[in-house]
Amino acid sequence: MPGDVSPWDPNDWERHIQRVLKLRYAQPVGSYQHVADEIKGDCGIEGFAVDGTAYQCYACQNWTDFGVLLEHQKNKMTLDISKLLRNEKELLKILGAVRIGIWNFVLPFWNNKDLLKHARKKESEVRAKKPKHTRADFRISVITGEEFLVEKEMLAKHDLYQFDVKDLPDTAPTAATWMEQHKELGLVENLARKAGVITKGKSAKVHQGFLNQTVKDYTSGSIVLGRLQQDVPEVYEEVLKRKTDREGELLTASATNTLVPGRFFDETLSQYKADLRGVAGISPRAVDILAREAVSDWLIRCPLEFE
């Protein structure tokens, strides 16, 4: 499916796309022009490049299913192409000698080829009207943030783009279900033994709550880690390196630890969160989720050992 289904605030989406476009057309300076829409609207484009490529951003809000999403996206395209045609005189003044050859409809996510059919219909309408500010071979493309991975990585390095988790997966099984599914593996025995030591002296309810939270942190966090790899691969590699390095340190630290197990667990989580905060390109919420994923992974697999 093209793009990332995670929700975006419309203003945040436009700001993000403007940043990546200014990087893409950074040389020579002035190759890209943002068209501000605060006064008199955007005329159907939010920016254009000297090569005749125009851009219009749209992040659909409050859609309940893919059918609703498609209708909103088609309606938005229709509205903006109407603006593009209706504001011919204004756009000729804005564009100068530039003529629009490609109009890119920039979305966080889309998944229905009917949107492309609608794009063909709209571009045919523009060609038929032969406006002076477009080329004879004018066409419409539907693109997502995936088109700007290089620019996104550059922004992330400078912490100008932060990977975030707006919709934490709610698919985590209960500890009992997860343990049943993995009972043939040593993971279950490993987690049960360590959870027993960490929650020693606590009630059965506290023990079960710890197990459930660990499994949730592990399963949901693994999904988020996969999203990070897809969204900003270089940031993912840095997180993975820090996780691997920290895991190696824990093999020694847990063997020589003199703290009570619960305190050692809490300090391990806190220290790793602090370490991840040093990685540019991830939000505080993502740091928290990725830290919990790592610690739960270490509990389940091996490095965190307690007596």
Describe, in plain words, how this protein is organized in 3D.
By secondary structure, the chain is an alpha/beta fold. It folds into two domains: 10-154, 3-Layer(aba) Sandwich (Trna Endonuclease, Chain: A, domain 1), CATH 3.40.1350; 165-301, no CATH class. It is 57% helix and 10% strand. A five-stranded mixed beta sheet has the order 1-2-3-4-5. A hairpin with a 3-residue loop joins β2 (47-49) and β3 (53-57). The protein is elongated, with a radius of gyration of 25 Å. The mean pLDDT is 88.
Would you summarize the structure shown here?
This protein is an alpha/beta fold.
When the domains are counted, the total is: 2
Mean pLDDT rating: 88
> Could you name the ranges where pLDDT drops below 50 across 5 or more consecutive residues?
none
User: What structural class results from the helix and strand content?
Assistant: alpha/beta
Helix content: 55-70%
Let me know the number of strands.
5
Helix tally? 11
Net shape = elongated
Give the CATH class of the largest domain: Alpha Beta
- At CATH's second level, what is the architecture of the largest domain? 3-Layer(aba) Sandwich
Distance between the termini: 48 Å
Strand order of the largest sheet: 1-2-3-4-5
User: Can you summarize the main beta sheet?
Assistant: 5 strands, mixed
Using brief descriptors, characterize the structure shown:
307 residues; five-stranded mixed β-sheet; 11 helices; alpha/beta; 2 domains; Trna Endonuclease, Chain: A, domain 1
Question: Which helices and strands, and how do they pair?
Answer:
Blueprint lengths: L9 H15 L7 E3 L12 E3 L3 E5 L8 H21 L1 H8 L4 E8 L6 H16 L4 E11 L4 H9 L17 H7 L4 H13 L5 H28 L1 H24 L4 H16 L7 H18 L6
Parallel strand pairs: 3-4, 4-5
Antiparallel strand pairs: 1-2, 2-3
